[in-house]
Amino acid sequence: MATVLITGCSVGIGYETALAFARAGHTVAATMRSPQRSPALAEQAAGEKLPITVFTMDVDSDASVASGIAGIVQALGPVDVLVNNAGIERSGTIEEMPLAEFRAVMETNYFGVIRCLQAVLPSMRQRRSGSIINLASVSGHIAATPLAPYAASKFALEALSEALAQEVRQFDIHVAIVEPGIIDTAMARRIATAGPPSAYRGQHRFAAMFTAILTAPVPPSLVADKVLEIAESGTWQLRHPVGPDSEPFLAWRRAMSDEDWVGWGALSDDEWYDRVKADFGIDARPAAAGK
Fold first, then answer.
1. I want to staple 194 with a disulfide (CB 3.0 to 4.6 A). Which of 199, 204, 209, 262 is the partner?
2. Residues designated catalytic
């Protein structure tokens, strides 16, 4: 059995991934920024008598990551599997989004991963074993308004992971990228809530599409099960789409030229909703906007 460090475990995919690994018999270090504000995982673990220990760690902080991982290693031993799950999103247009919001997303979703990697890699390299699983997204291949800040961070994470896989293969360290589609998480629910009025169309349209997709919600446990499967299988496969809409979304984008993709984003509302229904069978048009 492995010692598994998972970031961002207060809710959603991280929460379910911690439970999945522990129920399979692995020792789990579940990290979150404020455990006192998110006691559910510790309570669930205690109720099921699962090998989960919750640690305080903020991936945005050099000092927090260094002290947090040092404490984990002291308490549980070397990390065998690192699951970089912690992530945030911001939804809005590039013109209207404050620069600080772009920085916040990159700090957590990209630099936070690097901090954790640099903390665990020396031991993995010396032991010539280990597994690193990075939670990216279909947004790591599909850039669409109003999710530019999030997509930029996931594009960056995809590139980082691909380079990392090349670096560490010689030390028998596995690297995998998990690419979920739209999963029923608090993040997806926030995107499904339209923002303030804007001169740009994208935010209310994506909110409507997310709302429509979430009427048949895909639970975060589906992603957790995939992460567990990757870690236990020893696969060298780099990318792993997960969820019923993940591969269709990726194939849809690959089928379009860049110019077609830009044109899709610039369609009128009526044309856009018609295309989403034609391409995916999703009737995302809000009732009030019906013809």
1. 204
2. 150
